[in-house]
Design a protein that fits this description.
By secondary structure, the chain is an alpha+beta fold. It has four helices and five strands. It has one domain: Metalloproteases ("zincins"), catalytic domain (Zincin-like). Helix 2 crosses helix 4.
Length: 158
């Protein structure tokens, strides 16, 4: 069973074998779950936008002003992305739960793209303002390296 939005419609998928009463109950349950997910995402995105604003003030004198900042689940090879022409910043959900300085680094990195689109020397000079740049980059490199290691079966306690 699942529920999702498709434009202005809500789609709820349930097994055909359900009785009408079960169907009504599960539609209500799935709609409640979908609303809770959307509310959680909205709150998380609001917090993220406020965090980006604080970081812009702290490191770029407020010059980097994103139109939107949000978490996304479709970035599995990047930590974040920015579309300067739209002013939009997206952070991978994989960053959730990582140390704050790592998330802040990715936000500062994407905010810097609002001021300098590429990764040239001017861009990297902007990032020098964030004191934990090298540490955060090392952390993220470690995560990527660990993901590439063969996964060994967990040891069993005897």
């Amino acid at each position: 069973m699942s529920a999702y939005r498709e434009g202005d419609r809500t789609i709820v998928l349930i097994p055909a074998r359900m009785s009408e009463a079960e169907e009504q109950r599960w539609v209500t349950v799935m709609l409640d779950k979908l609303a809770a997910q959307e509310n959680k995402r909205l709150i998380g995105d609001t917090d993220l936008a406020e965090r980006a604003e604080r970081l812009s003030l702290q490191y770029f004198d407020g010059r980097a002003r994103p139109a939107s900042v949000r978490w996304v689940t479709n970035q599995n090879t990047r930590w974040g992305s920015c579309t300067p022409s739209e002013g939009s910043i997206r952070l991978s959900h994989r960053l959730q739960g990582m140390p704050e300085y790592v998330v802040d680094y990715v936000l500062v990195h994407e905010l810097a793209h609002l001021l300098v689109p590429g990764h040239g020397p001017r861009f990297w000079r902007l990032l020098e303002a964030y004191p934990r740049t090298e540490r955060a980059r090392g952390y993220l490199e470690g995560v990527v390296a660990a993901d590439r290691l063969p996964h060994l079966p967990a040891e069993r306690d005897e």
